[in-house]
Design brief:
seven-stranded antiparallel beta sheet; 38% helix; 12 strands; three-stranded antiparallel beta sheet; 15 helices
Amino acid sequence: KSVVDTVKALQCVMIAVLGWAAVVSAGSSGTTVAPISTAGPQDDPHPIDWLAVEAILKTYKNLKNFGFTAGDATGRKFSYVGGNLTMNSSLIMASASKFPAAMAIAGAVADGHLTFDTTAASVFPWWTSSADDRRSRVTLRQLLSFTSGFYWGDESGWVSCMEGNGSLLVTPEDCAKEIYNQAPFEFEPGTTWAYNSFHLQIAAAMAAKAAGITVQQLLHKYLITKLGLSGTGWLTGQNPLIAAAMYTTVEDYDKILAAYLSYDLLPKEVTDQMELDYLSPPYASHIANSSIYDVRFLGHYCMCNWYECLNLNDTIDHSVWDEQCKEAQVHQDLGLFGYYPIIDRKNQVYMQVGQQYLEGLNSTGLGCEYALILRILVTPLAYKAMGKPAPPMPTPPPGTDLDLPTLPSTTTPRIPKWPASKAGYWTELQRTLKNKSE
């Protein structure tokens, strides 16, 4: 069966069961259904549909400690947390740090401190301006779209200032200079897409210098303080790893998504640039060998967010990007630990699966993949509850058990990973966040 057919069948059962339970079982022992408090405002026109969403979330067996929220340009319509997680639990975002960081950097653009086409050479006096050196042509746009020319052999990217005490002892500009001098620079700017952390580290330092503030002040002024985010920040010190060291809560990230979607955080003329497809003409026409699989399974890339076009079958050796994906206008920023925020610009909807599934550290599971399958299952119901047409969802490959939604090992998407040698970085970051919370 297709995902939609399966979900519809499950919806009928759950509406009948949970609708009856909500009426006659209030006050009984165990968990009770509370559609008003769970689904949001009492005048929500689709409370029975939110019950069906909640049923999917409660019966999904692969994720235990996770949150889910959904809303539109007017704000949140539904929230759910399961297991030991609360709406205010601190979570390390890993690669899901990228999109919020880009929003903060774009805030400096919106304020007129620089443009997306400002060159790094015009901001940093030590950056070459010689036409003979292709680095002279690197722009903020290319840094935020990962087409600047910097390369690494996998999806991480490291020089010494980006780990250990580098976040405390090295200034952001000095770290940008270290990347400039030491990181591989392999491509003419704007021609080739390569997923790594170098681009964003330089972009943040560049925007902060242009605005005359520190990187931490940049993140606070244009994102954290602006939205009143009480549980959000970047660990740690003056030079945090911009692409991966964000911590936040499900509650805070819901505010980010709602403000971004409604243009309260950034004006439309700025977000329009952030949501362009930078893997189609007139932008990059090549993909670095380190990043081919990412595009194959997740879609094209914008400014620190994916222009989503999901492919759940790794027997397909090419991108499934097509006009349908382009027209759907769904953007996301799935992170290594399974945090999965989504912006649907066409339908003016946002959703998120919020979790910290420390793959390879305290878990042997597949947090990203499990979040992806949950999203596919819940999307038709959540959109129905909000009175919106759901974007097309891929059908999981043959062999997927939708009663216990796991992907067969032979058809598991290759989500962007960091090398096992960097597990110590995440362990230390987790310890820092724990100490900060106590």
